[in-house]
Write a structure and sequence with these properties.
By secondary structure, this protein is α/β, with parallel strands linked by helices. The chain has one domain: Rossmann fold (3-Layer(aba) Sandwich). The protein has eleven helices and seven strands. Helix 8 links the parallel strand 6 and strand 7. It starts with a helix and ends in a 22-residue tail after the last helix. The structure holds thiamine diphosphate and magnesium ion.
């Protein structure tokens, strides 16, 4: 599949937005301004931008702990600064600063939230997917998950049920080669994890996760299949995280040269080359994208820095459903 020049330029901007967003998150995490653990998806932008671009607003999204990019692109443009503010733990954040990096949700766009418990959203997603069938809508449910997460028992049980009931689910398996410090080949007998799909009689596909066009093509096919009642698909996007598991992990477990070889396959660089070589996009047009994104992300950071901390008086809000709350 080949995207038009304008489509590819838009996806390019999405990927640059994710990267600049995460670079700022990393900066303020290292400064200590952002509290808690931060997991960055730098290097994996084509998977996140491609998945987000393949879904509509009423599709259910379950991003994972490395899923800032999907959360950001799924939110309404005017809410994007609030994604940043949430990560900063501020009162103006999408969830009033209660969630932080690992617990952001935005139910109005059916971003059901990421979660620190690996494999848990795979179970919850059965419910949203079943709701689509029950309510006769064509909304699909997309879960992003890692290569390590696939080994959770919940994945077996859930995929078995989803396949048997032909639920409209996309298992978006982002294979970045590592689960913390363990390479996926040390914990799985298959050389490609998409082979798991055979056990559940559903399609499984290996995708070049650093090629935005390949991601959109494969994900779009799986979305269409799910919308038409064809059931789940397991998509294995091959990619690599440039940072360690969390911001601050030196990632000493990686063999020498591995990171450098993946940087050669940088999804942003590849899209830029395609834009310039195949579509004749000028350097100045590319620069304009970067300038626009820089200004945008800077405005999110300023908003977050200037926002107030949560009010301790509201610490128990959301414990009971009938309490009037802020931050929604
Ligand atoms: C049930 C559970 N077990 C263990 C952990 C600790 N943990 C957090 S992330 C992670 C590795 C996840 O690896 P993968 O699924 O490949 O995702 P990636 O971090 O590479 O994006 C582990 C073991 C957890 N959060 N939840
Ligand atoms: Mg992984």
């Amino acid at each position: 599949m080949t995207l038009s020049k304008d489509q590819l330029l838009q996806r390019y901007e999405d990927m640059v937005l994710i990267r600049r967003f995460e670079e700022e998150v990393e900066k303020y995490s290292k400064k200590g301004t952002i509290p808690g653990f931060i997991h960055l998806g730098i290097g994996q932008e084509a998977t996140q931008a491609g998945i987000a671009a393949s879904l509509k607003e009423t599709d259910y999204k379950f991003p994972d702990h490395r899923g800032h990019g999907i959360i950001l692109l799924s939110s309404h443009p005017e809410d994007r600064k609030r994604v940043m503010a949430e990560i900063f733990g501020k009162r103006t954040g999408l969830n009033g600063g209660r969630g932080g990096s690992m617990h952001v949700n935005d139910l109005k766009v059916r971003d059901m939230g990421n979660n620190a418990i690996q494999g848990s959203t795979v179970v919850t997603a059965l419910g949203t997917a079943f709701a689509s069938v029950y309510n006769h809508t064509d909304d699909v449910t997309a879960i992003s998950m890692g290569d390590g997460t696939l080994g959770e028992g919940t994945c077996h049980e859930s995929m078995n049920m989803a396949a048997t009931w032909k639920l409209p689910i996309l298992y978006c398996l982002i294979n970045n080669h590592y689960a913390i410090s363990t390479r996926y080949t040390e914990t799985h007998p298959q050389s490609q994890l998409a082979e798991w799909a055979q056990g559940y009689c559903v399609p499984g596909e290996v995708v070049d996760g650093n090629d935005i066009e390949a991601v959109i093509e494969a994900t779009g096919r799986a979305v269409q299949r799910a919308r038409e009642g064809g059931g789940p698909t397991l998509l294995e996007y091959m990619t690599y995280r440039w940072q360690g598991h969390f911001s601050g992990d030196p990632a000493a477990y990686r063999p020498a040269g591995e990171l450098e070889s993946w940087k050669e396959k940088d999804p942003i660089k590849r899209a830029r080359e395609k834009l310039m070589d195949a579509h004749g996009v000028a350097e100045s047009e590319i620069q304009a994208v970067h300038d626009r994104v820089d200004a945008e992300v800077e405005s999110y950071v300023q908003f977050s820095l200037e926002s107030p901390d949560p009010d301790p008086a509201y610490a128990t809000a959301h414990v009971y459903a009938d309490i009037e709350v802020e931050g929604r």
